[in-house]
Design a protein that fits this description.
This protein has 1198 residues and is mostly beta strands. The chain has five domains: 33-51 and 498-572, Immunoglobulin-like (Sandwich); 58-77 and 93-141 and 315-385 and 395-495, Jelly Rolls, CATH 2.60.120; 142-311, Galactose-binding domain-like (Jelly Rolls); 603-886, TolB, C-terminal domain (Neuraminidase, 6 Propeller); 1098-1198, Thrombin, subunit H (Beta Barrel). It contains four helices and 94 strands. The strands form 23 sheets. Strands 6, 10, 11, 24, 29, 30, 31, 32 and 35 form a nine-stranded antiparallel β-sheet that branches. Strands 7, 23, 25, 26, 27, 28, 33 and 34 form an eight-stranded antiparallel β-sheet that branches. Strands 13, 14, 15, 16, 17, 18, 19 and 20 form an eight-stranded antiparallel β-sheet that branches. The chain starts with a strand and ends with a strand.
Length: 1198
């Protein structure tokens, strides 16, 4: 895109600009162009609250709710299924419970039991609202991290893990509740385990471990906090770091024993902690446990895991019911589940109920699970995720009701789904159960409790919202809840405008506009801060215009009396012109006219050509499965698969049907690109699972190159389906991992037979109808009931196979070098295409980059699809290159070289993990790929796998060219000709080799690695891990969370890194060309963002005067907004702010867009850049907003 300044956007969320001068009112101007008007406000009386409403919004909501009003409103009948989880006696026949564990547990009456018996736990629990329900409590798997935790070992063995500190006497005693011995601790001091590295998570509410002890006092009295308490500290001899508010104690009721505990919260990954007990007096200690578990929304562990030499664990509990337990109604119905919801910040998925169903070749599930702070409520016919949060530690009613193909989800009597009043679409049939009904299954994520499941009911009629609410009130009352505290939800209300300030306080002024143009106007106070935005690119005609200000600020409050300045900007000359989409455009601005299409959003696999010469390219990416091109390279259609999780790897065209195979075989109409269904509604046949990719088996597998990791591993070692061929009604599919070729019917897709064949790959049918196949390294032909070798050792690593019009055989070779080999039918090698050489570096058309597909057209041309380079190559009859189409699997970050904006670098982090270099003509829009580097796999300093979507710059510093790319870590690479060398990293996700040559992770969240020895690998002595208190020492704020919540980073032309509200200057560039950074020189250059809470600092930028620019947004699923795209709809507020170098806010502009693009309205800010007195803000929905450096809106460009 070109916007007076030349601009190139990446496909996902970042863009960069070339410096240029601004144009105001059609003329070049270096002044601010302000008009000052004296505005003096008087009086201090509060304004009246006058609100306006829009009736059309109300009518629209009412019409939507009418869809649901037609559902039955009568009192629900008796449920046809009613499961109550209150005791083992109430479980239905066929229930099975397993607790494969070595732990003990505290029973309902506080007594300790062994857990080898098949006895689930049922416990009554009351919430803050007074509701008391009995439910099944399932506990997840866990590990006790402390050795010799029950103190049964000898003193010498205990001394290997435990020691005392202070004046503490330790004596072994007989007796206890978990074993035959306990410890008597007397005196004053601490009994501590040796330091343990504790794992953690990046978000504070996920961090933590419960430390629990079983203790008693000699006199049998309850233990006081002054006598005994759990203890944890990062350094022995320091104060206890478990605060009182997260400590607890409860009676075990086995004699005078008590369980006490507390929550340990490590700030960073792998911090060392000393944990144990602090005593002041005499105490008996029976057992101790340290178990990873978050504090927020999670109960303390109720079972104990004994350990001996080292840590020990228990498996998750699992309660399953007979498959036929749920008798689903067919036409309409209602599912009601009472459960206890967990943490509002839980970011994982903990399943409460789960059962799989099979309907033809489709799989569907009953799933009720915690997901983030909400719930997923899905029946076999369909369901929805709650956009609004559910209450934590609360008895929650989840209702799924359906009728006439529509469904609705209610939580605690209130609709809570993404379908709106009209509901969401549901399937017509349930299918048959494929397994048992699991309760509290798969309890793995974050060591979370699934909560309590109290009741599951099924009704054979749908409910409307009144019926749901009435039933909710009834159930709450029956459980002892406060019904009077419940408030029935009212009909949706229209939005209200900001409070109006009485007109007597308004001021007006007249300005003379010199030209007809979009005009912006803002008000500044006498301290130089913007207080009110009046116009945002408002269309205005030349001449006199009246501006009215109600003397309120942007928050709707009256400003203080004083003098204020009106600043205005007219921008008639800002226009957008599409330049190009190098590689791939995830949200393309518009198709480029007369431009050869790119392989948009596709990692190519197979390729096929029909008799007309049209080309079908198979791959995966952005939900795309197949693309059809003309013989001249024009994109004709794109196929969106019904199941984007399937990974298609081979295809074949026959007539007007394209057969596509991955884990399934299905058909596509070659004329329309639509999936072909069978008469029964089915559309695919299951072939099998893909094998796991082969991992290099050597000491430093993480250092594998692109051939070993990608060609040998991902492609050759991880592709099951490698060939498809069609002959009449027979469809042949090679299943490499199963050593067979399957034969299926072309219409019904039913399997007809299997043909055993070792390691089959490419398939083809020649002109005489013979079936040809790759088997291992040989090319074989099917003769009668057997296979016969036609060409032995046809290639080093043969993969794809095709038959040309003249009968010649084409074989793609994945060996070294990658080639396409051409043989006569008699097996004589005619020629080959593909030169040897290193793949990373300069892109060449005579070198192939993992040719996973080959096809031959009737005119003699050959098409080759290349997996690594995302390229479709066309060779003419003489094997000269006719054209090449380049694409990106998932281009996420882009940058222009600061001293040469025609050089573009694009990062593909999600797909293969690669960096592309393009040469771009900014006037014509023509671009060409020049270089390619693979950066994927698990290399400790080179890898970029992940969503590299935040911030990228390319600069020439000290005679060297560097790439800075950011996503939670700033990765710095140096360009050395055809080599891309990692030279430094700043931030988390860093691995380095310790003194023993083993990979280790950093101890702090923001280490700095500088490649001092020039080998491109991080070693322990090259990594700087500054203690938290040393970072920004003498400044106002510590390093976290002010950097941790910054997704973006800015690097200026001096090499200074701006991240969050910190600046890291470039210290030097050494003789090897390695840039040096250190947190010791970091300085605070922005505001304190700690009070932001859930507001996310998305983008950062800086100008020459030291000003900082930030774009921020606040997400809340409970207030999902209308708009464009899934993620932007979660954003409820957003703005763009400017701070001076002292940290004082100068202005804050922009607002949440209400729907279609609008001036100043942002759907979700994704990045920000400052260039040439302009502030550019990227919008995730695909727009670019432009403000002046003073907060005046300039333009919106899509």
């Amino acid at each position: 895109m070109l916007v007076h300044v030349r601009l190139v956007r990446s496909s996902y969320s970042s863009f960069v600009v070339q410096r240029n001068r601004r144009i105001i009112a059609g003329r070049e101007d270096n002044t601010a162009g302000y008009r000052q008007v004296g505005l003096t406000s008087v009086g201090s009386r509060s304004p009246e609250d006058i609100r306006q409403c829009t009736t059309c919004s109300v009518e629209g909501w009412l019409r939507g709710w009418g869809v649901l009003v037609g559902v039955q409103a009568a009192e629900p009948a008796k449920p046809q299924v009613d499961l109550r989880f209150e005791s083992s006696r109430m479980l239905p026949p066929g229930s099975v419970f397993r607790r494969p564990s070595l732990a003990t547990m505290i029973g309902p009456h506080g007594r300790i039991h062994g857990v080898d018996a098949n006895t689930p736990r049922f416990q009554r629990k009351a919430d803050a609202g007074g509701m008391s329900l009995g439910g099944y409590l399932s506990e997840s798997g866990a590990t006790n991290l402390l050795s010799h935790s029950s103190f049964e070992a000898s003193g010498k063995a205990l001394a290997s893990s435990w020691s005392s500190l202070g004046k503490l006497k330790v004596t072994s005693r007989a007796g206890g509740i978990h074993g035959k011995a306990c410890l008597e601790l007397s005196g004053e001091g601490q009994w501590l385990h040796s330091p343990i590295k504790l794992p953690s998570y990046s978000a504070p509410d996920f961090r933590g471990h419960f430390l629990t002890l079983y203790v008693r006092l000699p006199d049998g009295k309850p233990p006081g906090d002054g006598t005994v308490r759990v203890f944890a500290a990062r350094k022995r001899g320091e104060k206890n770091e478990i605060p009182l508010r997260v400590r607890f104690q409860d009676p075990v009721r086995v004699g005078p024993w008590w369980r006490i505990g507390g929550h340990v919260t490590p700030q960073f990954e792998n911090q060392e902690w000393s944990c144990g007990v602090q005593v002041n007096g005499t105490v008996l200690v029976d057992a101790i446990q340290l178990e990873r578990r978050p504090l927020n929304g999670c109960e303390a562990p109720s079972s104990y895991i004994p350990t001996t030499i080292g840590p020990a664990g228990r498996a998750s509990e699992l309660l399953t019911l007979a498959p036929e337990t749920l008798k689903w109604p067919k036409k309409e119905g209602t599912l009601v589940v009472w459960l206890r919801t967990g943490s509002p910040v839980h970011n994982g998925s903990t399943i409460v109920l789960r059962q799989d169903y099979k309907l033809g070749d489709q799989s569907q599930s009953l799933t009720i699970m915690h997901n983030g702070g909400g719930l997923d409520v899905f029946g076999p016919i369909g369901g929805n995720r709650t956009p609004r949060l559910v209450r934590p530690d609360h008895w929650t009613q989840a209702v799924l009701t359906w009728k006439d193909g529509r469904g609705w989800t209610f939580i605690d009597g209130v609709q809570n789904d993404r379908g709106g009043p009209g509901g969401y679409q549901v399937r017509p049939d349930f299918g048959a159960p494929a397994n048992r009904l699991a309760v509290g299954a798969q309890l793995l994520n974050y060591a979370h409790l699934a909560g309590y499941v109290a009741r599951v009911q099924l009704f054979d009629a749908a409910w409307d919202h009144d019926t749901v609410w009435d039933r909710y009130e009834t159930d709450v009352a029956a459980a002892g809840g406060d019904v009077m505290a419940l408030v029935k939800p009212a009909r949706p209300k229209p939005p209200t405008s900001r409070p109006m300030i009485p007109r007597k306080f308004w001021v007006k002024t007249v300005v003379d506009l010199s030209t007809t143009a979009p005009t912006s106007a803002v008000v500044y106070d006498s301290t130089g801060r913007l207080v009110r935005t009046l116009w945002e690119a408002k269309p205005m005609k030349a001449g006199k215009a009246e501006i009215t200000w109600d003397t309120g600020n942007d928050a709707g409050k009256r400003v203080s009396p004083g003098r204020y300045q009106l600043r205005m900007l007219q921008a008639p000359g800002v226009n957008a012109r599409y330049v190009a989409t190098p590689g791939n455009g995830r949200v393309p601005q518009r198709p480029a006219p007369h431009e050869v299409a790119g392989v948009h959003g596709l990692t190519p696999r197979g390729v096929s050509v029909d008799r007309r010469g049209d080309v079908y390219l198979l791959g995966r990416g952005h939900g795309v499965g197949v693309q059809k091109y003309s013989a001249t390279g024009q994109l004709l259609w794109t196929h969106i698969p019904l199941d984007s999780s399937d990974a298609p790897t081979a295809c074949a065209i026959d007539g007007e049907t394209l057969f596509v195979a991955g884990q399934h075989l299905y058909r596509i109409d070659a004329r329309t690109g639509q999936t072909i269904r069978r008469p029964d509604g089915g559309w695919r046949a299951f072939l099998g699972e893909n094998p796991s990719a082969v991992v290099p088996d050597r000491p430093r597998a993480e250092l594998a190159g692109v051939r070993e990791a990608m060609i040998d591993g991902t492609v050759l070692g991880g592709t099951m389906t490698r060939g498809v061929a069609v002959r009449g009604d027979e469809v042949f599919v090679s299943c490499w991992a199963q050593d067979q070729v399957r034969v299926l019917h072309r219409v019904s897709l039913e399997q007809l037979s299997t043909l055993p064949l070792p390691r089959p790959a490419g398939l083809a049918v020649d002109g005489s109808g013979r079936l040809l196949a790759i088997s291992g390294r040989d090319l074989v032909v099917r003769v009668g009931m057997a296979w016969r070798v036609l060409i032995p050792r046809v290639a080093r690593r043969p993969f794809a196979l095709a038959v040309a019009a003249d009968g010649h055989l084409l074989v793609s070779d994945m060996g070294e070098p990658c080639r396409v080999l051409e043989y006569t039918p008699a097996g004589r090698l005619v020629r080959s295409y593909g030169q040897p050489g290193e793949l990373p570096g300069k892109i060449r058309t005579d070198r192939l980059y993992a040719p996973t597909g080959v096809a031959a057209a009737t005119d003699g041309s050959v098409y080759v699809s290349e997996f690594l380079l995302n390229r479709l190559l066309k060779l003419d009859r003489s094997h000269a290159v006719a054209w090449a189409l380049y694409g990106g699997a998932y281009i996420e970050n882009a940058s222009l070289l600061s001293d040469d904006p025609t050089v573009v670098h694009a990062m593909d982090g999600y797909g293969i993990g690669a960096l592309y270099e393009y040469k771009l003509d900014l006037d014509t829009g023509r671009w060409s790929p020049r270089k390619w580097w693979w950066l994927g796999h698990s290399h400790p300093t080179r890898e970029v796998r992940g969503f590299m979507i935040h911030g990228q710059q390319t600069h020439t510093l000290g005679g060297h060219r560097y790439l800075f790319s950011c996503h939670k870590t700033i990765r710095i690479y140096r360009f050395d000709g055809d080599r891309l060398v990692p030279v430094a990293r700043v931030g988390s996700r860093l691995r380095f080799y310790d003194g023993k040559g083993k990979l280790a992770r950093s101890k702090t969240a923001f280490p700095v690695w500088v490649d001092r020895n020039g080998d491109g690998l991080a070693t322990e002595e090259e990594v700087e891990e500054v203690p938290l208190g040393e970072v920004g020492k003498g400044r106002r704020f510590p390093i976290e969370p002010h950097i941790g919540f910054s997704h973006d980073a800015e690097v200026d032309r001096r090499g200074t890194v701006y991240w969050g509200n910190f600046a890291l200057p470039l210290e030097k560039i050494d003789q090897r060309g390695v840039p040096h950074y250190t947190w010791k020189t970091a300085s605070v250059v922005g505001p304190d963002f700690k009070p932001l809470a859930n507001k996310m600092l998305e983008g950062v930028a800086a100008d020459e005067q030291g000003r900082r620019y930030f774009d921020m947004f606040y997400k809340d699923d409970s207030l999902r907004q209308p708009g464009i795209g899934h993620w932007p709809r979660r954003v409820i507020r957003c703005d763009v702010s400017c701070y001076d170098k002292t940290g004082r806010k100068i202005w804050s502009v922009g607002h949440k867009a209400k729907g279609l693009p609008e001036p100043g309205g942002i759907h979700q800010p994704s990045c920000i850049r400052y260039e040439g007195d302009w502030v550019f803000v990227g919008d995730e929905a695909g727009m670019v907003h432009i403000w002046s450096r003073d907060g005046l809106y300039v333009a919106l460009r899509c």
